[in-house]
Amino acid sequence: MKIIENQPDINRRTLGVTFPTDHQANVVLWAPLAKQVALSINDHVTNLPLTNDDSGYWHLETDQLKSGDTYTFVLDDEKVCADPASLAQPQGVYGPSQAVDTNKFYWEDSCWINPPLDDYTVYELDVRTFSPEGTYDAVVRQLGQLKKRGINALLIKSLSSVIASPDELFLYATQASYGGPYQLHHLVNACHYEGIAVILDINYTEISKQNAYLKFHRSNKQKVNQRESTFANDSQRGAGRRYVIENALMWFRDFHIDALRLNAVYTLPDSEQILTEIRAYTDQLTDQTGTHYCLLVEHELANKSFTGNKATQNTHQDNELLSVSAIENSSSFFTDNQPNKLPIKTYREDCMYDQYFSSVLRELFGRQTQPGNSGELLRSF
Known about the structure:
Blueprint: E1 16-21, E2 24-30, E3 37-41, E4 48-49, E5 51-52, E6 57-62, E7 70-75, E8 79-81, E9 97-98, E10 121-125, H1 127-130, H2 136-140, H3 143-148, E11 153-156, H4 180-193, E12 197-203, H5 207-210, H6 234-255, E13 259-263, H7 271-289, E14 294-297, H8 309-314, E15 322-324, E16 345-347, H9 355-361, E17 379-380
Parallel strand pairs: 10-11, 10-17, 11-12, 12-13, 13-14
Antiparallel strand pairs: 1-2, 2-6, 3-4, 3-7, 5-6, 7-8, 7-9, 15-16
Helix pairs in contact: 6-7
């Protein structure tokens, strides 16, 4: 078995369950403490064993797992776990994962062009409260109304329900009650048809509490100690970075998301390195697809300047902060929304990647900005 390094692939997702062909599923799980790992499909009695590559990852190639099947991992013949890179949890966070073949998504947005970031007029949307149905399909039916109000960017504030357990988080999955990955795909297609960009709000606040990709990958018989916690050594840190970076690339590449707002990224270990690598891989993806993507990273301290990695190398000076404010004079579909209470957001400009900016400003991440000259970057409703 060839040892796979912790290097994301911009062309495809490599973690969890993927389908390189119609008749083959590739399964990859990070479980460095497990002695045995098996795959259970649709609660069948017979499980399929995975092979350890001696780097902490377990692998399986099989024709027995199909898109739509439910599956779990069994560790050391004892602990049953959902897939931390699952794209769907149809029975909730404590149920089995569901295999999703994103190659089956039918896209109709080949003519879509993501507008420059400073042209976005953003509507912040909570799927659960936006409509009585609380689904992505219900949002699709209101896109015409949003467009009439001048909205050209839709920010989905949370992919998970607020009632989901903070102890079991699935960074790759969207809430089943919202319609799951298939309705999200439909929403993005419909938004692009209407000339509306889609932004996802990714929140890392609870990831460290959950120990991200690694915490529950031990059997109950194994003793837990502090040294074995997430990112406790280089291989674990690398696996954690790969997990987060591949997640960002998945939304751009597989779901055609136009922008990601990364919240609480500083709660992650190696946050600076993660941001740098997300930025670099996003750049590579843009070079390959010709599509430009946006990254918004909220600054950890609103009153503190910073120096990004590229800025350090190029200018050895701090960059200033770029403020993003909200318009206060708009009504909303939310009955409880108070536009005048929306917070002013402050974002790191060295991590705010936009292909249009890069072509004009030469070195987006190393240049200095003058406070007060940037204007209103995002108009938020």
